Amino acid sequence: MNVCLVIPTxxxxxxxxxxxxxxxxxxxxxxxDHARKEILTPTKGFLSIQHYTWxxxxxxxxxxxxxxxxxxxxxRSYGFWKAYQAxxxxxxxxxxxxxxxEPDFVQKHLxxxxxxxxxxxxxxFPHPLYTFTRGFPYGVRxxxxxxxxxxxxxxxxxxxxxxxxxIGDVNIPAxxxxxxxxxxxxxxxxxxxxxxxxxxxxxxxYFPLMGKDPDGRPWGFDRYDDIWAGVFAKxxxxxxxxxVANGSPFVEHKKASDPVxxxxxxxxxxxVNETLWRIIEDTVLTSKSTTACYRELAEKAGxxxxxxxxxxxxxxxxxxxxxx
Length: 324
Fold this sequence. Notes:
Layout: E1 3-9, E2 27-32, E3 48-52, H1 54-61, H2 76-85, E4 90-94, E5 98-100, H3 105-113, E6 116-117, E7 144-156, H4 161-167, E8 171-172, E9 179-181, E10 194-198, H5 225-240, E11 243-253, H6 259-281, H7 290-300, H8 307-321
Parallel strand pairs: 1-2, 1-4, 2-3, 7-11
Antiparallel strand pairs: 4-10, 5-11, 6-7, 7-8, 7-10, 9-11
Helix pairs in contact: 4-6, 5-6, 5-7, 7-8
């Protein structure tokens, strides 16, 4: 199993020292959100190490480099593409403020991606081994292939800035291991701080235009890159009968961002977020593969009028064409 870990960062990678016993069987892809390397590249602890910057994006994509955001964690999509090019079977992504919270981090993601989800019924006890409780029909227990493993976190809850400023930090104690699947027909707030997915769904993992473009001009939205990518991906996964696991492995989240700054970044996207998922839900898909579905979604989604959405659809098309 070829496992690749993608980390976007603007900070020191010293946090990786805490992961030294967990990630030794992974290939590492660093996507530094700077024009050139300013961060020291690790020299050991991984099967291989690749370190990319804006210059590499420009070299690879030329006039289309703009599809990868700058000064935003959505730049990690470039790392997904490089991992895909390198033959990754599974891609894991972590934020640089996340630390080990339970053992066997990689294996637990792999176990999720080798599991199957039930159909029509929701398990009331989210045991990691899927030991179903009394009355759960045997005929619906293992119906859908899991393609996305959405890991959770302890310590600092991943909240939007408005909520965090209203109620303060919510410190979550360590959880026992668990696994549940996001029900079909439901969306979920996909956090990219601890996420794994199979090679086959890489075409769905484009994180939309946020932060700034390569010339430093703001796109007008920020901090919804993983959320909106999750909405697009879940629509297609549901259509194809593919599942999302949620739960273990946990990480400890030592939140590095500031809620006052985040409130400014999130303000415009918060309004759009209330309706965007409904636009995606109303889009009718007919294609039979992840790549074809993503390109169909880009063409058919009834995005609002405006230059941002025109550029977003163009970026989605360019991303989708990478996987032809």
